[in-house]
Amino acid sequence: MLRLCGFPVSNYYNKVKFVLIEHGIPFDETLVNVPIKDPACFADTPLGKVPYLLTERGALSESQAIVEYLAASHPDKRIFPADPFDAAKAREIMTVLELYVEWNARELFPEAFFGGKVSDGTKAHVEKRMPRALDGFKRLARFSPYVLGDTFCIADIAAFVHFPITALATKAIYGRDFIADAGIDWKSYVKRIEEERPAAKRVSEERKAFIAGLAKQG
């Protein structure tokens, strides 16, 4: 059986987890926190990142590589749209969301979430780049009602896991929700997905339970 390694606060971990649950692919979970300290783990995740997936043929790291593997090894699940152009559009908008929107916001995470500090230069750089990245995302997105139109797809899974943490990071650093400021009603969108998709509800509930458990530990 597939084994997903990581922790349920990671948006990229939850991206893969959502895909597995949504498409009924059996898997187990192993809690692996970062920074990874066990040298043996680096054989499975060369950069010490989560998530990574243990398969019968070996390990895979990087969430998109894992999703592509799942799609190729379970063609009957239709993880990507069947139409080649629609599938490419899903990959396109996911790339824009992850490489330009979420990755920009990720530079803020040390101060936004982990008690560290981010330089004023980094903050200014992110503040300058984020509106352009979000404008590009909006040019591709439809939200009618799903990211790419009238059908739920893998792009919605990516948006569901990346919107909240990106918005929270910008709010923590600048006092403004950059996604909402860009005219994207992400809170209503995420709420609807959670209400419609049992997989989304499970991912969200297990993330919240994990955070609550950490809080109890002090």
Automatic annotation (TrEMBL):
Pfam families in the record: GST_N_3
GO cellular component: cytoplasm
Alphabetized InterPro entries for the sequence: Glutathione-S-Trfase_C_sf (IPR036282), Glutathione_S-Trfase (IPR040079), Glutathione_S-Trfase_N (IPR004045), GST_Omega/HSP26 (IPR050983), Thioredoxin-like_sf (IPR036249)
Domain of life per record: Bacteria
Ranges for domain GST N-terminal: 1-78
PROSITE patterns: GST_NTER
Classification via PANTHER family: GLUTATHIONE S-TRANSFERASE OMEGA, PTHR43968
Protein's name according to its UniProt entry: Gst-related protein
Natural source organism: Burkholderia thailandensis
